[in-house]
Design goal:
The complex is a heterodimer of chains A (341) and B (99). Chain A has helices at 26-37, 69-78, 96-102, 107-116, 119-122, 140-147, 161-166, 173-176, 182-195, 197-211, 220-247, 257-273, 280-299, 310-340; strands at residues 6-12, 15-20, 49-53, 61-65, 84-88, 127-131, 150-154, 213-214, 217-218. By secondary structure, chain A is an alpha/beta fold. In chain A, the strands form 3 sheets. A 5-stranded mixed β-sheet of chain A has the order 1-2-3-5-4, with helices on both faces. Chain A has a two-stranded parallel ribbon with strand order 6-7. In chain A, helix 4 (107-116) packs parallel to helix 6, helix 11 (220-247) crosses helix 12 (257-273) and helix 12 (257-273) runs antiparallel to helix 13. With 99 residues, chain B is an alpha+beta fold. Chain B has 3 helices and 4 strands; from the N terminus they run βαββαβα. The longest helix of chain B is centred in the C-terminal third of the chain and has 10 residues, at 74-83. The chains are: A alpha/beta (341), B alpha+beta (99). The complex binds iron/sulfur cluster (2 copies). One iron/sulfur cluster is lined by residues 15, 20-26, 42, 60, 62, 64-65 of chain B.
Amino acid sequence: MNKKYIIGTVDTVVGTVNQISTLWSSSDLWSTIKVRWSTGRMNYSVKQGLYAIGTPNADSDIFVSANYKLSFDHLRRALHGMNAWVLVLDTKGINVWCAAGKKTFSTENIIKSIKNTSLEQIIKHRKIIVPQLGAPGVAAHEVKEKSGFSVIYGPVLACDIKPFIENGYKATPSMRKVNFTLKERAKLIPVDLMYGKYKLMIAIGVILILSGIDKTGFSFSRIIETGSFSVCSVLWAYIAGIVITPLMLPYTPFRAFALKGAIWGTVSTLVIKQFFNVSNLNFIALGFFSISIASFAAMNFTGSSTYTSLSGVKKEMKWSIPLQIAFAAIGIILFIISKLV
Amino acid sequence: MKTMQYLKDVVTLQLNRDKCTGCMMCITVCPHEVFQFKDKKAFIQNRDQCMECGACAKNCPEGAISVRSGVGCAAGILNGLLKGTEASCDCSGTGSDCC
Ligand code: SF4
Ligand code: SF4
C-alpha cells in the first residue's frame, strides 16, 4: 500500500518518528470509497507505532488510534493545524469500536505500545487521549496502574476533537453520545448490500428454477416468461430489508428489526404486483417468500446499528428465525402449487 | 430526533450502588447516556438504551457494574451458533469514524 500520508520525520530523544499529513490525498479518498463498498476491508491497515502531526514536543498531546486506515485518516484530518502525537495500536486493521469489542484495542495493547515506542522518554506529561468508543476494551484505571499514563476519553467523533480540547479536555454529553443519523445509516448500506450477495443469488436461483415448472414438466423458456415477477419480488425484498428498512428505521413501527423488515417486505411486494399480471396464488406465494427475505435481511442490520444489545438480538432471533424459515417454506410450497394448478 | 430504542427489559446491566464511589467514569464512557449522577453516586436512568457494550463495567474502578457484554449483531450470533463459538461480528462499521 502506498504511504503518501507520511511526509517527513521528526527528531526525538529516542530517534526519528514519521511525520504524517493532515490532508487527504486522492488515493486516501479513493481507498475510503473502496472501503465503503467492499467486504474485504481488513487490509486497509496502517503500521502500528508513533506518528507526529506538525512538530510536536515533549508537552504535546497524545492521541491513541486503531490501525484501521479509515479511523487513522479521520483522526489525522481532525488534528489539522495542531502539533500532536498519534499512537497507533495494532488492532489487525479493525476500527476502534469493533477492536474494543474483540479486545485488540485493549488495556494490554496500550501498555505494550507505550513501552514499545518509549513514550515515557519522548514525552514529559503522563496523559493519553483515547477515543471513547475504545472504552469497552480499555480499563483506564489499569492503564494508569501499569504504565503510569492516565487515560482521558476523547469524543466519539474525531471532528469533535478541537471543541473537546477547547472545552478543557472534557467531552460534553453530546460529544459522548453515539447518534445514528440518516447519513450514518446510509453510509453503511453499500457494505451491507454486498454482504448478502451470495444468499441473494441463491434465493433468485431457487425461484428461477421453480419458475420453470408447470403441469407438463420443466422448461427453460417458461423461466423467461414467468420468472420476471418472481425475480423482481425477491430483488426488491432484499432491497426493502437492506436499504429501505435502515433508512426508515426511526419511522417504522415495532422495535424488532425482523418486524420492521417484514413490513417493508410486504410493502415492496404490494407495489411490485402493480406492474405485473400474476395470479393471486402466485402473488401470495411470493409475498411469503419476500417477507421472509426482507425480515432476515433487515435483522442483519442489527450488527451495523449502534444501539442493539446482544441480549435483545438473541431474544429477537429466537422467535424470528423460525418464523422466517416457515414463511420461506410456505412461500416456496405455495409457489410450486401455483405452478401446478 | 428522539433516541432509537431497542427491545424493552432485556439488558443484563446491573449496578451495585453500595460499591459506587461516584467517580463518574461510567457516565463518561457510556455512549447512550444510560447513567446519571444522583446523590453523589451513579444511577441507571435509561436501562433500555443500554447496548451491552461493556465499557462501563470495564472502566468502573470499584467493580460496581456488571453486564454480559457482546455484539448485538444477528449475523455474528448466527455465525457463533453455526460454528459453536461466541457471537462474533465481522463488523461492517459503526458509522462513527467521522462527521
Ligand atoms: S454497557 Fe455500554 S451502553 Fe450499557 S450502560 Fe454500560 S457503557 Fe452504557
Ligand atoms: S464507574 Fe463505578 S464507581 Fe465510578 S461512578 Fe460509575 S459505578 Fe460508581
